[in-house]
Amino acid sequence: MPRTSRLRSYRRLFAPAGTLAFTLGNLLARLPMGMFTVSAVIMIAGVRGSYALAGAVTACGLACTALVAPMTARLVDRYGQARIALPATTVAVLGSVSLILCVRYGAQDWTLFASYAVTATTPNTGGMSRARWAYLFPDDPDARHTANSLEQALDELCFMLGPILAAALCTGLSPYAGTLTGCVLLLTGMALFTAQRRTEPPPVRDDGAVHGRAPLRLPGVPPLLGTFLATGAVFGSVEVVTVAYADGQGHKSAAGAVLACQAAGSAAAGLAFGALRLRGSLERRLLCCAGSMAALMALPLLASVASVASAGGNLTVLAGALLIAGMATAPTMVTGMTLLQHRVPRARLNEGMTLAVTALLGGIAAGSAAGGWAVERVGAHGWAYAVPASAALLAALVTASANPRGDSGSSLMQRTVAPGESEGSLPYAPSESR
């Protein structure tokens, strides 16, 4: 596709008034998502002198997010983004400020857990943004595909830059600087995002008939969440194994740059993927993307093992392998999110996408634990990359078992229309096969 055509695909997204402003606000509010965990670990470990405490506190926050985020998303769907998201963000920011004060003034350990648990009210900004694109382009599947690709690229950018910014602030200025900066960015970005009322999807009141069943109980949704869970395990295990591998080669400080290669590959692939005009069913497309991810995630394993065997370890070779391997993750995420939007009624769209993010977070936690276990068992010599490779293979197998023939699934999606809601009120048409 010519470069001008690719640029036109993205330019047309910003033709409606307010789209550029809500995208900028969404970017500011999303950047802290890659900052808070790193900032909390550095702050707590540096001031309290315990990585065990820091890890336990952040794990508690992750668990609370898994419980609270779907409920926050349900309120957003029911009462509107502006009415719920900004107050929920304010509560989360107060939790972060409380964490800083408790660490700074030596409060008891339980106060750190309580403070960080409050931050679980942070709304899923990416989900709300995707809901806006679905609302703005209800009859344009190509525009929605491009928008979902843009959102995935922004995710990768934030999780690439967030940890680097957090580490620089916490080590260069103050242990508290990363968390404070994240709070300012989150609150400012959410205020700008929610101020764009013209692009906000109207709330759907809960009359008992319109909302219907919870997304988790809809046909086709649990297998998708299984794919997201396994994909999250890829992310979590790659991060831990890469840090351990770099440390084993005596270059722990370079781990962030090596991991950034994977995020850069994913972001670039996501932007290119969004400019494509693809044919065929979303189910078949997801199966192809997940299969490609499984194949490419074998590259870091092969590169690290071969590098150690021949030259004692080479981070440049590993960085190149991760760059290529990352190119399959964004298309998998984009297609999975688009398919999820097909299967969840508009009235509970944000809740459905938040469940996907929750599955990802759960997978990241499990992948981190599995990666750490592998490093302890086999050492930081490359074989631990079998964990992300296995997680990617599991994602492909889950996807294949849910759609063994890559069926279009039109009848399945028709069953997800809640009582009292027509097919036309879904964010997407029942089938995108063209």
From TrEMBL:
<dbReference type="Pfam" id="PF07690">
    <property type="entry name" value="MFS_1"/>
</dbReference>
<feature type="transmembrane region" description="Helical">
    <location>
        <begin position="216"/>
        <end position="235"/>
    </location>
</feature>
<keyword id="KW-0812">Transmembrane</keyword>
<feature type="transmembrane region" description="Helical">
    <location>
        <begin position="255"/>
        <end position="274"/>
    </location>
</feature>
<feature type="transmembrane region" description="Helical">
    <location>
        <begin position="50"/>
        <end position="72"/>
    </location>
</feature>
<feature type="transmembrane region" description="Helical">
    <location>
        <begin position="383"/>
        <end position="403"/>
    </location>
</feature>
<feature type="transmembrane region" description="Helical">
    <location>
        <begin position="176"/>
        <end position="195"/>
    </location>
</feature>
<feature type="transmembrane region" description="Helical">
    <location>
        <begin position="315"/>
        <end position="340"/>
    </location>
</feature>
<feature type="transmembrane region" description="Helical">
    <location>
        <begin position="84"/>
        <end position="107"/>
    </location>
</feature>
<dbReference type="InterPro" id="IPR011701">
    <property type="entry name" value="MFS"/>
</dbReference>
<feature type="transmembrane region" description="Helical">
    <location>
        <begin position="286"/>
        <end position="309"/>
    </location>
</feature>
<protein>
    <submittedName>
        <fullName>MFS transporter</fullName>
    </submittedName>
</protein>
<feature type="region of interest" description="Disordered">
    <location>
        <begin position="403"/>
        <end position="434"/>
    </location>
</feature>
<dbReference type="GO" id="GO:0022857">
    <property type="term" value="F:transmembrane transporter activity"/>
</dbReference>
<feature type="transmembrane region" description="Helical">
    <location>
        <begin position="352"/>
        <end position="371"/>
    </location>
</feature>
<keyword id="KW-1133">Transmembrane helix</keyword>
<keyword id="KW-0472">Membrane</keyword>
<dbReference type="InterPro" id="IPR036259">
    <property type="entry name" value="MFS_trans_sf"/>
</dbReference>
